[in-house]
Automatic annotation (TrEMBL):
Pfam families: Poly_export, SLBB. Residues 35-108 form the Polysaccharide export protein N-terminal domain. Keywords: Signal. GO terms for molecular function: polysaccharide transmembrane transporter activity. The keyword Signal applies. PROSITE patterns: PROKAR_LIPOPROTEIN (PS51257). This is Polysaccharide export protein. Residues 114-164 form the Soluble ligand binding domain.
Length: 187
């Protein structure tokens, strides 16, 4: 009888500790955004090519307010647009008294950086490359420290203007602008 009471108290203590953890399931939108076209944001750099217009063809950065400063037409909204939407936006503005039928092409030259924090060798800001996973980002940041929880990490991601945090496994893909936080393990 005494061992049953001790077992019950131990189970109760474990369940209470489990209830105190800050774990929340990853929101559905967190992984849905991976299957959508890439949307530009502050810090991205794009290569804009205007056919037969060498003076307009160049590399441009999306500024902090989400705009691209383009010759002749001024500021062009870029934040939240895909490369194809930006092509159309620039072409429409050039059609308004500058070029008769502009042929515009936009490709991403450099993505905005990712950030790796917590129990890693060298926390900081790192360049994003397509195909980057959590595990690869941690390797770039000097690997796990001896105290690191190597099972899962927290990722903070901006999805349609809303900042969300979710816990994922290390094989999950990253997006430009993500912040990876490697937690400390308990034991």
């Amino acid at each position: 009888m005494k061992s049953t009471a001790s077992l019950f108290r131990a189970l109760l203590a474990v369940s209470m500790l489990a209830g105190c953890s800050s774990y929340r399931p990853t929101p559905a939108a967190f992984h849905e955004v991976l299957d959508q076209p890439y949307r530009l944001g502050a810090g991205d750099r794009v290569r804009v090519t205007v056919f037969e217009q060498e003076g307009l063809t160049n590399t441009y950065s999306v500024d902090q307010s989400g705009y691209l400063s383009f010759p002749l037409v001024g500021s062009v909204p870029a934040r939240g647009h895909t490369a194809q939407q930006l092509e159309k936006e620039i072409a429409d503005k050039l059609r308004q008294g500058y070029l008769r039928d502009p042929d515009v092409s936009v490709e991403i030259d450099r993505y905005r950086p990712i950030f790796v924090m917590g129990e890693v060798g060298a926390a900081g800001q790192y360049s994003y490359v397509p195909g980057l996973t959590v595990q690869k980002a941690i390797a770039i940041a000097g690997g796990f420290t001896p105290r690191a929880n190597q099972e899962s990490v927290d990722i903070t991601r901006d999805i349609n203007g809303k900042v969300m945090t979710g816990r994922v496994v290390t094989s999950d893909p990253l997006l430009p602008g993500d912040t990876v936080y490697v937690r400390e393990r308990l034991f």
